[in-house]
Amino acid sequence: MSEATNTTEVRGAGNAPTGSRARPRSFPWAVPPGASDDDIRIGRRRWYSGAVFALLWQVLEVIAVWNDGRSLRAHVVSTIALAVLYAAYLFAPELMWRRSLRGRVVVLAGVALLAGLLLFVVGPLAIWTWLLVAALSGFVAERFWVAGSVVLAIVGAQFLVALGTGWDQAVDSGILFAPVITVSVGASMLFFGRQREAEQRLGVAQDEITRLAVVEERARFSRDLHDVLGHSLTVVAMKSELAARLVDVDPIRARTEMQDVERLSREALQGLRRAVSGYREADLDAELVSARAALAAAGTDASLPHDGDAAADDVRSLFAWVLREGVTNVLRHAAASRVRVTLTRTALTIEDDGTGVLEASAAVTPGNGLRGLRERADAVGATLTTGTSDLGGFRLRVERNRR
């Protein structure tokens, strides 16, 4: 990756608003009222991929209707009524995504009314379609207890239908199991909602960590510039003024002062170059702090060195890049619960107990992953290796070759 690209990324991270990923608590396939087109597009993709799968299970409902012993006309009418409900269920979110919470409740109530009217057309078997209403309730839930209340209401209505049908018939026809399945669907919804909320909180935390890292790096760079240039430029200004006053009185001393100005200017320029070079290179101590914060935010048990003093000076920048890429891959792909980082003078090892070598290797992109790290390692005479760690997951190790 070029230095210009790195600079662009740093600027973008610093200018990004804090908590830009924050969203109201919602289910994975729902989006909050007033969401952007991108959020709606993501919610639409998630919804239809899951909704079509849910409708496949409704094939059992259609089969049960056609085998309930009624007339052919009743079967046809029931099938048409079910098709209307399925269409309403599938496309109801299109009416919800851009509406307020009140509008979403109205749409959900309309679908629930259709499902309730099926009792007069399909009979008691219609209660299995109420599972779709439970799933659809996620779109109006800005708090999870809303969906929980909807699920409980559906379960209560199902018990009333079973009671009206008769317990023996309800058991024989399987209707009594509908409340159990409804509770299972509702629990799954709440679980996915909680998972989505955790992902959102982790995203906000990572954004904040990135922003703070950029702010700290800018502050460090400002301090370096002040230390490098502040004193030198002050002395240069004073000697220049003195040389201007002495040029007519004592030309030899004036020439000496100007020679000192030239020397100080060159020293300041060299110091500036060193500061800029340090700014463009990754800092091992900063990466250790960032890695510790990121792993803690992800809930991963991490064992990392307190600082990077153990590493040799000529490999500190390389180790910083390897640490950054390794921890990023652990967070994105490894699904690890434990990470161990070992640092010596000439080697850095990152190990986890995640999904292992194949998954981690496949997830690495050529431009920013192992290929880029190997190029950096080759540039300083080091070797990058991968394998299975003692923890059971992926191991990434970089070691400087013997000289």
Task: Describe this structure as you would to a colleague.
There is one protein chain. By secondary structure, the chain is an alpha+beta fold. It is elongated. Helices cover 67% and strands 7% of the residues. It has 14 helices and five strands.
Secondary-structure-derived class: alpha+beta
Task: Supply Rg.
Answer: 33 Å
DSSP helix fraction: 55-70%
Number of strands: 5
Secondary-structure element series: HHHHHHHHHHHEHEEHHEE
Topology:
Layout: H1 3-15, H2 37-57, H3 59-66, H4 72-96, H5 101-121, H6 130-136, H7 144-165, H8 167-173, H9 178-246, H10 251-280, H11 284-297, E1 301-303, H12 316-334, E2 338-343, E3 347-352, H13 357-362, H14 370-379, E4 382-388, E5 394-400
Parallel strand pairs: 1-2
Antiparallel strand pairs: 2-3, 3-5, 4-5
Helix pairs in contact: 1-9, 2-4, 4-5, 6-7, 6-9, 7-8, 7-9, 9-10, 9-11, 11-12
